[in-house]
Amino acid sequence: MTEPNAARPVVTRIAPSPTGYMHIGTARTALFNWLFARRHGGQFLLRIEDTDRARSTPEATAAILRGFEWLGLDYDGEAVSQFARRDRHAEVARAMLAGGTAYKCFSTQEEIAAFRETAKAEGRSTLFLSPWRDAAEASHPDAPYAIRLKAPRDGQTVIADRVQGDVTIRNATLDDMILLRSDGTPTYMLAVVVDDHDMGVTHVIRGDDHLNNAARQIHVYQAMGWEVPVWAHIPLIHGPDGKKLSKRHGATGVEEYAAMGYPAAAMRNYLARLGWSHGDDELFDDAQARAWFDLDGIGKSPARLDFKKLDSVSSWHIARMDDTELLAEIARFRALTGQAPLSQAQHDGLLAAMYCLKDRARTLPDLLEKAQFIMTDRPIERDERSQAALTDVSRGILSELTTQLQNGSWSRDTLEATLTTAAEAHGLKFGQLAQPLRAALAGRTATPSVYDMMLVIGRDETIARLTEAAAPAR
């Protein structure tokens, strides 16, 4: 791996447009930038590219910030508004004009549209080459003008990309892009370069849909005599069918995944592996990701979203997560989805039961479903299958057990002996007794073991629930 220049500390950035929710592709790009910066002890910056005033909204900006908070991607300093820097962008355009690397273009939108229409009809290139590029100042009319970049017409521009390799663009295929519109507003292409330079960005890690933009942006860097950053254009995320990820494939927004109950640590792990690899390692924590991440591990082919793999990664993280940390994730999930905060009893019960809840839970809702025996209060609300397990015979057995469980130690060994003896006395296999016990204790048929539930909720609550379930059906 080629290491960054030690004399120039690494600075990366993510620059989302606040025109909607935070896309999962934006989240992955942010993660790659964050990992690279953190590995090299550099800075990771956030810029909100809000120059499109018609589409940019405060709500979308808030959604982006919530996405960063949920993912746990801390950025350095304050978020920068691109729109707020418009005067600086215009200043650079005028500096290029003064330096001869840009020029005034008086061509109107109507003239440009007419040229392209005619060229298309005649089968010629529709690339607009402004007639004002080399016009003498004396010939300039007293009319509004745009400032265009005086881009090289001959030769080639090579984008030295750390993911795509060297990408060569013939300069003859590029027009002189507008830097400053006739109304005085800067274009996105100029603003990006000025902001990246002023923010000290050393590595531009972004989607490969921006690859062609790099050639034009290189010309701006060269015109201003600025150092060109390292480019790394990463393939986009596709759905399972190999097509560009969209709503038809399922969730595409970060907050949708949070609402589905995937822990943030699992999402970081999964997104890191979505287009990047470190040998055969599939499952890892943040410290390992920071230690391993490099640009050479990013593949050239689009990554495919795989929900089964995401479930597997999520299950691995939930099983290994610290109990207190997992409780915090649950509390955050419940707040995000509009559920009531955990009561103290629920908090304590979950903490005590984590040892029997974490295994094989794919998401936080999975875990909470297993924890129904903790989350519910008497009277127990039972689903249809568990209600069917409470027959006259099973109620009689539960009634007997309420007496048998009154005395003795409240330990797994004692409980196993008592319940096994009760099953044998009625000619039942233990599984046949377990179902009415699950119905009584949790109101569900899918639960942790009956022993674990009884140990967690304690003797008094266990007997109270068995007594309630043993009561004759009404």
From TrEMBL:
Start and end residues of each Glutamyl/glutaminyl-tRNA synthetase class Ib catalytic domain: 10-311
Assembly behavior: Monomer.
GO biological process terms, semicolon-separated: glutamyl-tRNA aminoacylation
Motif ('KMSKS' region): 244-248
InterPro entries: aa-tRNA-synth_I_cd-bd, aa-tRNA-synth_I_codon-bd_sub2, aa-tRNA-synth_I_CS, aa_tRNA-synth_I_cd-bd_sf, Glu-tRNA-ligase_bac/mito, Glu/Gln-tRNA-synth, Glu/Gln-tRNA-synth_Ib_cat-dom, GluQ/Sye
Gene behind this protein: gltX
Motif 'HIGH' region in this chain: 16-26
Enzyme class: ligase
Superkingdom to which the source organism belongs: Bacteria
Protein name from the UniProt record: Glutamate--tRNA ligase
Subcellular location, record wording: Cytoplasm
GO function term, MF aspect, one: tRNA binding
Aminoacyl-tRNA synthetase class I anticodon-binding domain mapped to chain residues: 343-469
Protein EC: 6.1.1.17
PROSITE patterns: AA_TRNA_LIGASE_I (PS00178)
Organism the protein comes from: Rhodophyticola porphyridii
Ligand binding (ATP): 247
Protein family membership: Belongs to the class-I aminoacyl-tRNA synthetase family. Glutamate--tRNA ligase type 1 subfamily.
Cited function: Catalyzes the attachment of glutamate to tRNA(Glu) in a two-step reaction: glutamate is first activated by ATP to form Glu-AMP and then transferred to the acceptor end of tRNA(Glu).
The entry's keywords: Aminoacyl-tRNA synthetase, ATP-binding, Cytoplasm, Ligase, Nucleotide-binding, Protein biosynthesis
Catalyzed chemical reaction(s): tRNA(Glu) + L-glutamate + ATP = L-glutamyl-tRNA(Glu) + AMP + diphosphate
GO cellular component labels: cytosol
